[in-house]
Glucosamine-6-phosphate deaminase (Fictibacillus terranigra), 246 residues
Amino acid sequence: MKIIEVADYKEMSRVSAQIILEKIKSQEHVTLGLATGGTPLGTYKELVKDHEENGTRYDHVHTYNLDEYVGLASSDPESYHAYMCEHLFHPVHIPLDQTNIPNGAAEELLQECMRYDTLIENIGGVDLQLLGIGQNGHIGFNEPGTPFSSKTHIVDLTPSTLEANAEYFADRCKQPTRALTMGISTILQSKEILLLASGEKKQEALFHLLRGEVTEAVPASALKMHDRVTIIADSQALKLVNSLGK
Ligand SMILES: N[C@@H]1[C@@H](O)[C@H](O)[C@@H](COP(=O)(O)O)O[C@@H]1O
Protein backbone atom coordinates (compact mmCIF):
# COMPACT_ATOMS: atom_id res chain seq x y z
CA MET A 1 0.00 0.00 0.00
CA LYS A 2 1.23 3.45 -0.85
CA ILE A 3 0.78 6.00 1.94
CA ILE A 4 0.72 9.71 1.25
CA GLU A 5 0.93 11.71 4.47
CA VAL A 6 -0.51 15.21 4.18
CA ALA A 7 -0.79 18.09 6.62
CA ASP A 8 -4.54 18.39 6.91
CA TYR A 9 -8.01 17.82 5.46
CA LYS A 10 -7.53 20.53 2.84
CA GLU A 11 -4.37 19.00 1.46
CA MET A 12 -5.90 15.50 1.56
CA SER A 13 -8.81 16.80 -0.52
CA ARG A 14 -6.56 18.55 -3.04
CA VAL A 15 -4.31 15.52 -3.52
CA SER A 16 -7.18 13.07 -3.89
CA ALA A 17 -9.03 15.34 -6.36
CA GLN A 18 -5.82 15.54 -8.38
CA ILE A 19 -5.57 11.74 -8.58
CA ILE A 20 -9.22 11.46 -9.64
CA LEU A 21 -8.79 14.20 -12.25
CA GLU A 22 -5.75 12.48 -13.73
CA LYS A 23 -7.84 9.34 -14.15
CA ILE A 24 -10.74 11.31 -15.71
CA LYS A 25 -8.42 13.09 -18.13
CA SER A 26 -6.35 10.09 -19.14
CA GLN A 27 -9.10 7.66 -20.15
CA GLU A 28 -11.76 7.80 -22.85
CA HIS A 29 -14.16 5.94 -20.59
CA VAL A 30 -13.87 5.97 -16.80
CA THR A 31 -15.74 4.16 -14.03
CA LEU A 32 -15.48 5.68 -10.56
CA GLY A 33 -16.56 4.09 -7.28
CA LEU A 34 -17.74 6.86 -4.96
CA ALA A 35 -18.12 7.27 -1.22
CA THR A 36 -20.19 9.50 1.05
CA GLY A 37 -19.76 10.81 4.60
CA GLY A 38 -17.79 13.86 5.68
CA THR A 39 -14.40 12.69 4.40
CA PRO A 40 -14.87 12.98 0.59
CA LEU A 41 -16.78 16.29 0.74
CA GLY A 42 -13.60 18.35 0.33
CA THR A 43 -12.53 16.20 -2.62
CA TYR A 44 -15.90 16.76 -4.31
CA LYS A 45 -15.55 20.52 -3.66
CA GLU A 46 -12.17 20.47 -5.41
CA LEU A 47 -13.66 18.58 -8.38
CA VAL A 48 -16.48 21.12 -8.64
CA LYS A 49 -13.98 24.00 -8.45
CA ASP A 50 -11.91 22.41 -11.21
CA HIS A 51 -15.03 21.91 -13.35
CA GLU A 52 -16.01 25.56 -12.94
CA GLU A 53 -12.52 26.92 -13.54
CA ASN A 54 -11.21 24.50 -16.19
CA GLY A 55 -14.37 23.02 -17.67
CA THR A 56 -13.34 19.39 -17.12
CA ARG A 57 -16.05 17.26 -18.70
CA TYR A 58 -17.75 14.20 -17.20
CA ASP A 59 -19.60 12.83 -20.28
CA HIS A 60 -17.36 9.77 -20.32
CA VAL A 61 -17.58 9.10 -16.58
CA HIS A 62 -19.82 6.43 -15.03
CA THR A 63 -20.15 6.26 -11.26
CA TYR A 64 -21.02 3.51 -8.76
CA ASN A 65 -21.65 4.47 -5.14
CA LEU A 66 -20.74 2.22 -2.25
CA ASP A 67 -23.93 2.29 -0.26
CA GLU A 68 -27.35 3.68 0.61
CA TYR A 69 -29.64 3.64 3.64
CA VAL A 70 -32.56 1.21 3.61
CA GLY A 71 -35.91 2.98 3.50
CA LEU A 72 -34.74 6.32 2.12
CA ALA A 73 -36.05 7.16 -1.35
CA SER A 74 -33.67 8.90 -3.74
CA SER A 75 -35.71 12.10 -3.26
CA ASP A 76 -35.15 12.03 0.52
CA PRO A 77 -32.78 14.89 1.41
CA GLU A 78 -30.96 12.65 3.90
CA SER A 79 -30.31 9.87 1.38
CA TYR A 80 -26.89 9.30 -0.17
CA HIS A 81 -28.62 9.89 -3.54
CA ALA A 82 -29.41 13.45 -2.47
CA TYR A 83 -25.91 13.91 -1.05
CA MET A 84 -24.29 12.86 -4.33
CA CYS A 85 -26.60 15.04 -6.47
CA GLU A 86 -25.93 18.07 -4.30
CA HIS A 87 -22.18 17.72 -3.84
CA LEU A 88 -21.05 16.25 -7.15
CA PHE A 89 -23.47 15.05 -9.82
CA HIS A 90 -25.36 18.31 -10.42
CA PRO A 91 -22.46 20.74 -10.06
CA VAL A 92 -20.14 18.84 -12.46
CA HIS A 93 -22.99 17.88 -14.83
CA ILE A 94 -22.51 14.12 -14.88
CA PRO A 95 -25.42 12.69 -16.91
CA LEU A 96 -27.61 11.19 -14.16
CA ASP A 97 -28.23 8.01 -16.17
CA GLN A 98 -24.49 7.36 -15.85
CA THR A 99 -24.66 7.38 -12.06
CA ASN A 100 -25.48 4.31 -9.98
CA ILE A 101 -26.39 4.05 -6.30
CA PRO A 102 -28.05 1.06 -4.61
CA ASN A 103 -31.78 1.68 -4.23
CA GLY A 104 -32.47 1.57 -0.50
CA ALA A 105 -36.18 2.00 -1.16
CA ALA A 106 -36.47 -1.07 -3.41
CA GLU A 107 -39.32 -3.41 -2.54
CA GLU A 108 -37.13 -6.49 -3.00
CA LEU A 109 -33.89 -5.59 -1.28
CA LEU A 110 -32.17 -8.91 -1.98
CA GLN A 111 -32.90 -8.58 -5.68
CA GLU A 112 -31.61 -5.02 -5.60
CA CYS A 113 -28.34 -6.25 -4.07
CA MET A 114 -27.99 -8.85 -6.83
CA ARG A 115 -28.80 -6.29 -9.53
CA TYR A 116 -26.16 -3.91 -8.17
CA ASP A 117 -23.54 -6.60 -7.87
CA THR A 118 -24.15 -7.74 -11.44
CA LEU A 119 -23.72 -4.15 -12.67
CA ILE A 120 -20.26 -4.01 -11.12
CA GLU A 121 -19.27 -7.51 -12.20
CA ASN A 122 -20.28 -6.68 -15.77
CA ILE A 123 -17.83 -3.79 -15.90
CA GLY A 124 -15.14 -5.95 -14.27
CA GLY A 125 -14.89 -3.69 -11.20
CA VAL A 126 -14.55 0.10 -11.22
CA ASP A 127 -11.37 1.80 -12.44
CA LEU A 128 -10.90 3.83 -9.27
CA GLN A 129 -12.71 3.34 -5.96
CA LEU A 130 -12.76 6.19 -3.45
CA LEU A 131 -13.14 5.09 0.19
CA GLY A 132 -13.46 6.64 3.61
CA ILE A 133 -12.94 4.59 6.76
CA GLY A 134 -15.26 4.21 9.74
CA GLN A 135 -13.94 4.66 13.26
CA ASN A 136 -14.37 0.90 13.74
CA GLY A 137 -12.45 0.15 10.53
CA HIS A 138 -15.49 -0.28 8.28
CA ILE A 139 -15.40 0.44 4.56
CA GLY A 140 -18.63 1.19 2.74
CA PHE A 141 -21.00 -0.12 5.42
CA ASN A 142 -19.10 -3.40 5.87
CA GLU A 143 -19.05 -3.65 9.63
CA PRO A 144 -16.45 -5.65 11.63
CA GLY A 145 -16.97 -9.38 11.10
CA THR A 146 -18.24 -9.05 7.51
CA PRO A 147 -16.77 -11.92 5.43
CA PHE A 148 -14.14 -10.81 2.93
CA SER A 149 -16.07 -12.85 0.35
CA SER A 150 -19.19 -10.67 0.77
CA LYS A 151 -20.98 -9.19 -2.21
CA THR A 152 -23.51 -6.34 -2.16
CA HIS A 153 -25.73 -7.04 0.84
CA ILE A 154 -28.11 -5.68 3.48
CA VAL A 155 -26.47 -4.71 6.73
CA ASP A 156 -27.64 -3.91 10.26
CA LEU A 157 -25.58 -0.92 11.30
CA THR A 158 -23.68 -1.15 14.58
CA PRO A 159 -24.39 1.27 17.43
CA SER A 160 -20.98 2.93 16.90
CA THR A 161 -21.67 3.55 13.19
CA LEU A 162 -25.14 4.90 13.99
CA GLU A 163 -23.60 7.20 16.57
CA ALA A 164 -20.84 8.38 14.21
CA ASN A 165 -23.37 9.22 11.47
CA ALA A 166 -26.09 10.69 13.73
CA GLU A 167 -24.96 14.25 12.97
CA TYR A 168 -26.22 13.87 9.38
CA PHE A 169 -29.83 13.36 10.54
CA ALA A 170 -31.98 16.24 11.74
CA ASP A 171 -34.23 13.82 13.64
CA ARG A 172 -32.31 10.93 15.18
CA CYS A 173 -35.55 8.87 15.34
CA LYS A 174 -35.60 8.87 11.54
CA GLN A 175 -32.01 7.62 11.16
CA PRO A 176 -32.17 4.30 9.29
CA THR A 177 -30.61 1.36 11.10
CA ARG A 178 -30.02 -0.70 7.95
CA ALA A 179 -28.19 -0.06 4.69
CA LEU A 180 -27.30 -1.69 1.40
CA THR A 181 -23.57 -1.79 0.77
CA MET A 182 -21.14 -3.13 -1.77
CA GLY A 183 -19.45 -6.11 -0.12
CA ILE A 184 -15.73 -6.43 0.53
CA SER A 185 -15.21 -8.66 -2.50
CA THR A 186 -17.17 -6.15 -4.62
CA ILE A 187 -14.81 -3.40 -3.46
CA LEU A 188 -11.73 -5.56 -4.05
CA GLN A 189 -12.74 -5.98 -7.71
CA SER A 190 -11.76 -2.30 -8.23
CA LYS A 191 -8.68 -1.86 -10.37
CA GLU A 192 -7.35 0.85 -8.07
CA ILE A 193 -8.40 2.05 -4.60
CA LEU A 194 -7.96 5.42 -2.91
CA LEU A 195 -8.68 5.54 0.83
CA LEU A 196 -8.93 8.89 2.61
CA ALA A 197 -8.60 9.49 6.34
CA SER A 198 -8.54 12.74 8.25
CA GLY A 199 -8.64 13.67 11.90
CA GLU A 200 -7.85 12.13 15.27
CA LYS A 201 -11.03 10.07 15.29
CA LYS A 202 -9.58 7.86 12.58
CA GLN A 203 -6.22 7.18 14.23
CA GLU A 204 -7.13 3.83 15.78
CA ALA A 205 -8.76 2.53 12.61
CA LEU A 206 -5.67 3.52 10.60
CA PHE A 207 -3.37 1.96 13.18
CA HIS A 208 -5.23 -1.38 12.95
CA LEU A 209 -5.22 -1.15 9.16
CA LEU A 210 -1.54 -0.27 8.78
CA ARG A 211 0.05 -2.14 11.67
CA GLY A 212 -2.41 -4.93 12.43
CA GLU A 213 -3.06 -8.25 10.75
CA VAL A 214 -5.46 -8.97 7.92
CA THR A 215 -8.65 -9.89 9.76
CA GLU A 216 -12.38 -9.71 9.19
CA ALA A 217 -12.56 -7.92 12.55
CA VAL A 218 -11.09 -4.90 10.72
CA PRO A 219 -12.88 -4.73 7.34
CA ALA A 220 -10.39 -2.21 5.90
CA SER A 221 -7.54 -4.68 6.45
CA ALA A 222 -8.87 -6.57 3.39
CA LEU A 223 -7.28 -3.80 1.34
CA LYS A 224 -3.89 -5.36 2.11
CA MET A 225 -4.88 -8.16 -0.27
CA HIS A 226 -5.15 -5.64 -3.14
CA ASP A 227 -2.02 -4.53 -4.96
CA ARG A 228 -3.05 -1.01 -6.00
CA VAL A 229 -4.17 0.85 -2.89
CA THR A 230 -3.19 4.42 -2.02
CA ILE A 231 -3.98 5.89 1.37
CA ILE A 232 -4.03 9.65 1.76
CA ALA A 233 -4.07 10.49 5.45
CA ASP A 234 -3.38 13.62 7.42
CA SER A 235 -1.04 13.79 10.38
CA GLN A 236 -3.92 13.72 12.90
CA ALA A 237 -5.19 10.45 11.44
CA LEU A 238 -1.64 9.04 11.42
CA LYS A 239 -0.82 10.17 14.97
CA LEU A 240 -0.99 6.71 16.55
CA VAL A 241 0.76 5.05 13.61
CA ASN A 242 3.59 7.57 13.76
CA SER A 243 3.99 7.47 17.53
CA LEU A 244 3.73 3.71 18.07
CA GLY A 245 4.06 1.98 14.82
CA LYS A 246 7.47 2.72 13.38
N1 LIG B 1 -21.01 4.63 4.67
C1 LIG B 1 -20.13 5.65 5.10
C2 LIG B 1 -18.71 5.24 4.79
O1 LIG B 1 -18.56 5.09 3.39
C3 LIG B 1 -17.76 6.30 5.33
O2 LIG B 1 -16.45 6.00 4.98
C4 LIG B 1 -17.88 6.37 6.82
C5 LIG B 1 -16.98 7.42 7.45
O3 LIG B 1 -17.65 8.64 7.52
P1 LIG B 1 -16.97 10.05 7.66
O4 LIG B 1 -16.24 10.27 6.40
O5 LIG B 1 -18.13 11.00 7.84
O6 LIG B 1 -16.08 9.96 8.83
O7 LIG B 1 -19.23 6.72 7.13
C6 LIG B 1 -20.29 5.97 6.57
O8 LIG B 1 -20.40 4.84 7.34
Observations:
- The CA atoms of residues 42 and 186 lie 25 Å apart.
- Residues 35-39, 66-67, 132-134, 140-141, 161, 165 surround GLP (CB under 6 Å).
